[in-house]
Amino acid sequence: MKKKVLTMLLAISMTLGMVGCGGGSTDSGSAQGKDSVTKKNAGDTLETNVIRWNCGTSGNVLLTIAEEKGYFKDEGLTIEYIQSDANADAMTMLSTGKVDVVSNAGTSNPLQQIASGVDLTIFGGHMVTGCMPVIAKKGTKWNGPEDLIGKKFACNPSYFAFTGAIMDLGYDNPLEAVDWVTYTDYNDALAAVVRGEVDYALMGTGQTYTVKNMDDVDIMCYQSDVMPNYSCCRMECPTEFLEKNPITIKHAMMALLRAQAYYEDSKEEAVKLHAKKINADEEYVAAYMLDKHYNVSVDPLKNSVVRAWDVLDKTGFLDEKSKKINISDHINTVLYEKALAEAAEEYGNENPEFYNKMQTFFEENDKA
Q1: Same structural domain for residues 101 and 240?
Q2: I want to staple 118 with a disulfide (CB 3.0 to 4.6 A). Which of 55, 113, 143, 206 is the partner?
Q3: Residue 331 burial (CB < 10 Å; 0-12/13-18/19+)?
């Protein structure tokens, strides 16, 4: 048995409150300097030099790098971390003005908020895909999402990648085609698989280390195998904040783009930086961050967000008010496009291939 007791304890300690991609942040600070204005180059004036940010208990590796390497400082910005214990709490703080930006609360959460009438705008991204494994008892064979039909699957059906995949198989009502079993904690879902109470279970990114080191379960696939570029975590803020602070938001994304370029070239170093930031073992962080299924990007990923909205609508997870909402009105790609162009001009010599790649990715994933 490979570290079974140790890894189970680690999973419990590291993932309480980590739902999907994240919950609360690692620390918090004051709002000093919130109303100050900082001059930036080429006539840019930051509307504020402090952004109050919630990035979940799992943190945001791009934020970690941008701070550690001084990229935010180069843009004249300070990030103030605001703590919450769960995605729902982060969304509440966002809608009540207690935080400016949330980056780790998934895609379903902000879309459901928008559908209920909360005026939020998605303007960037964190994880394109998390490292979220689907597990079953050891020895189970996996052919694809068709194996979920008629089976007990420990997964919240608002996880649109799976309901979308079931609909792609020709099932008009994926909620009836699969026996969805919902747990509030991934560890409970893991235990249900071990006990044989469910056939399959979706795990969070934070459980990757645990399930990779267990003898009695196998990884069937990852959520990104079922729906590529499904949009794991978006960056969103109140629309009013974005409208009042477009230059600040643009420069924040410029810093994060530099961080992404560093991350893609130095993943092992990024693991060390981020493990220290979230007070985790490097082995735990490396289990998901060095896995090919884990992908981060500042890109808003508009096309995937629109796809998620459509799936959530068809499966009944959006408020009736959504019928009068054009979700594209709540996705801003203009500021990211400007940030990408200016970052490429100012910092492109650091990694020209990266910025060319990001421009191609933007054309493929954000243009209608």
Answers
A1: yes
A2: 113
A3: buried
